[in-house]
Amino acid sequence: MSSYSRVIHHATSILCSNKGSLAFQQLHRKVFQRVEITQDDFWYIVKKCSRFVVVRNRERTDEWGTDCVIVAKTSLRLCKNYTKQDCRDCQELHLCKYFVYGNCRFGKGRKQCKFSHDMRSEHNYTLLRECTLHELHEDDLFLLLLQNDPTLLPEVSALRECSSVLSALCVRAHG
């Protein structure tokens, strides 16, 4: 693994273990503990790499990014057709979305889930490797997916003012 790749991998891992984002200075300090890299070089990598998004806290920031938050990003998504068992040559992960949420009712051993809970299946591992995410811990990968895949966002209920009984039964988010 090149030093450039090592920096990207380590920064991604740090971001995911810190809820997906960190201030630039904090991230640089944490990366620097394992990989010796100047602030200039690190700033260049963060700005140019598609794995990261730079979010400015204020309208004007200096060149070092002291007022910036770095957010982890991926283009990897869960397959929408996987649930229909209808995809060929798919470039998306084949996983149970409730497994990613951490609440699949079938994952507790009672009844087998019909969707995959295997991050290391041949299909999924190939995609993770192509995106250089194969070394991330499962929880970190799930956070990255939840943060980036819009299909994993909860549906918003049209019944904004559900009674407490209806709210308890409704599986959608109430805004």
From TrEMBL:
Matches recorded under PROSITE patterns: ZF_C3H1
Domain of life from the UniProt record: Eukaryota
InterPro entries, A to Z: ARTD-AVP, WH_PARP12, Zfn-CCCH_PARP12, Znf_CCCH
Domain C3H1-type: 95-120
Keyword Zinc: yes
Keywords: Metal-binding, Phosphoprotein, Repeat, Zinc, Zinc-finger
Keyword DNA damage: no
GO CC entries: nucleus
Zinc finger C3H1-type: from-to: 95-120
GO molecular-function terms, A-Z: NAD+ poly-ADP-ribosyltransferase activity; NAD+-protein mono-ADP-ribosyltransferase activity; zinc ion binding
Name of the protein this chain belongs to: Poly (ADP-ribose) polymerase family, member 12b
Source species of the chain: Hucho hucho
